[in-house]
Hints:
By secondary structure, the chain is mainly beta. The chain is 7% helix and 47% strand. It has helices at 3-11, 116-119, 177-180, 366-374; strands at 22-28, 32-34, 37-39, 44-47, 53-56, 72-80, 83-90, 101-105, 110-115, 128-134, 137-142, 146-148, 151-153, 158-163, 169-175, 188-196, 199-206, 210-211, 216-217, 221-226, 233-237, 245-252, 255-258, 262-266, 271-279, 286-294, 303-304, 308-312, 320-326, 336-344, 357-363. The strands form nine sheets. Strands 24-31-30-26-28 form a five-stranded mixed β-sheet, with no helix packed on it. A four-stranded antiparallel β-sheet has the order 5-4-1-22, with no helix packed on it. Strands 6-7-8-9 form a four-stranded antiparallel β-sheet. The radius of gyration is 26 Å and the shape is elongated.
Amino acid sequence: MKACMFLWLLAVPFIVQADNFDWHMFVPTEGVNLNGAYGDHNQGVIQGSFFNFTELNFDDYTPFDIPDSTAVSAFALEPIAQSFVVWVSFSTPIDVFSPGEILRCDVDECQSVFSVQQDLNVTAAVAIDALDLQEDLISVSFDVGFTHGSEYIDPKNVYSIGSDGNGNILLVEQSNGVSLGMSEAGNMSAYDKSPNINGFSFFFGADTVFNRTNDTVFSNEILRIDSSNPTHSYAFGISEVVHFIKAFHSLNSGYVGLIDESIDVDENAGNIQIELYRTYGNEAYVSVLVESMDSSAVESVDYQFSPTAVEWFGGDDSNKSISLDIIDNQQLDGKKVFFLYVFAASEFASISGLHELIEIRIIDDEMDDLIFADGFD
């Protein structure tokens, strides 16, 4: 590996290389420090591998600063090209927006996408308590109960926001808190639906402890249920120092690896292609860097390869190929070996621990000529 490229990788703070493809982002209700990553009621924390945390600063996605008195009550990330816009709702009025609004924000502007008071014609002080975005479907939970039309909207439930085709907003129940085990006094405080290889993973959090058949879910834990096997579920905590989770978002970006662990190539093979895969998730943009490392084979003598970036955009999990050249030195010097390594080069890129390198063995073609000559003396 080239020393300068290794130093560059170390200098990029958000790069995480781990056998991890389910990124958990959360907003705690109190200030916490997780291995140097600080989070509080208006600054999130990203959990990668078990002890790896980075900060999610919402100020980076909004055209205004978020005051200390304002909390992020719900959020979701919408992948766009190589970045994100943030969908967010706040606990207090901020800029020209109210607590009951969902905002779609980037660094230039925030647009109101939904307002409890205006779109539902609710006069009470109702705020958004959980938020999820799946393509064009917005799902929410509210911090208090209220009546919409003739229906009671329960703060323990998750509702998708729809339309009746006549300009009227419909709230369609998606998840029922009581069926999950929540008590009548509990509220749904966090929700996310994230695609996985077998369907979807559902994540639920509540502001009170609730009991299920096989486990108890505490207020600093998230309940996970997979759509492929709804009877199987488990609760997980982010950290013991986190007492309450106010908002939560999961991002399943999958992981990247090299298809082969080792290959043999003839010295006269010329240009060859090496394939990489992305699997177990395709949310968001990811980029990786492929680097070479000499062993008995030497770069520019036995092979030619330049550090190569490989990228996938959101929704793309097709195999990608990189190119390198095998150099025939016209000398009898035996088998030569070198390696290619894969490194994470973007936020939310994860590398398979089993397929982060490939051994490439160059088979000397002069050996064949020698055997042929010896056989016909």
